[in-house]
């Protein structure tokens, strides 16, 4: 189980990303638009830099929904390999068959 503080920190980052997503997209569009004057694009870049760092989606880290584990994460299932194995062994995942040899 991951530390509660790390799980909460990730939730806080996720909230910031969602809060600033529209503003970031708007500023990035202005900054990359070649038809706009150079000063306007530069100002957009400065405003983008003023936004909180944790509002950037690249700072998010995928974590298991059950345990909070950051490594060995399956995107489709949103759980880690260990949680997947436990759920499969207990017969709680439909379509997953236990095997042993």
TrEMBL record:
| One term under GO cellular component | cytoplasm
Please give a single GO biological process term from the UniProt record: translation
Presence of keyword Hydrolase: no
The reply on keyword RNA-binding is yes
On the tree of life, the source organism's domain of life is: Bacteria
Instruction: Extract the InterPro entries matched here.
Output: Ribosomal_uS14 (IPR001209), Ribosomal_uS14_bac/plastid (IPR023036), Ribosomal_uS14_CS (IPR018271)
**A Pfam cross-reference name:** Ribosomal_S14
Alphabetical keyword list: Ribonucleoprotein, Ribosomal protein, RNA-binding, rRNA-binding
HAMAP family hit by this protein: Ribosomal_uS14_1 (MF_00537)
Checking NCBIfam families in the record gives: PRK08881.1 (NF006477)
Its family? Belongs to the universal ribosomal protein uS14 family.
General function of this protein: Binds 16S rRNA, required for the assembly of 30S particles and may also be responsible for determining the conformation of the 16S rRNA at the A site.
Q: What is this protein called?
A: Small ribosomal subunit protein uS14
Q: What is the lineage of its organism?
A: Bacteria, Pseudomonadati, Pseudomonadota, Alphaproteobacteria, Rhodobacterales
């Amino acid at each position: 189980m991951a530390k509660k503080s790390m799980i909460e920190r990730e939730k806080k980052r996720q909230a910031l990303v969602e809060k600033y997503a529209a503003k970031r997209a708007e500023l990035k569009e202005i900054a990359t638009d070649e038809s706009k004057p150079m000063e306007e694009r530069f100002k957009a870049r400065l405003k983008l830099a003023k936004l909180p760092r944790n509002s950037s989606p690249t700072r998010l880290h995928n974590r298991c929904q059950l345990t909070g584990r950051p490594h060995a994460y399956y995107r489709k299932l949103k759980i880690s390999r260990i949680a997947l194995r436990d759920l499969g062994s207990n017969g709680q995942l439909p379509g997953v068959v236990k095997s042993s040899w």
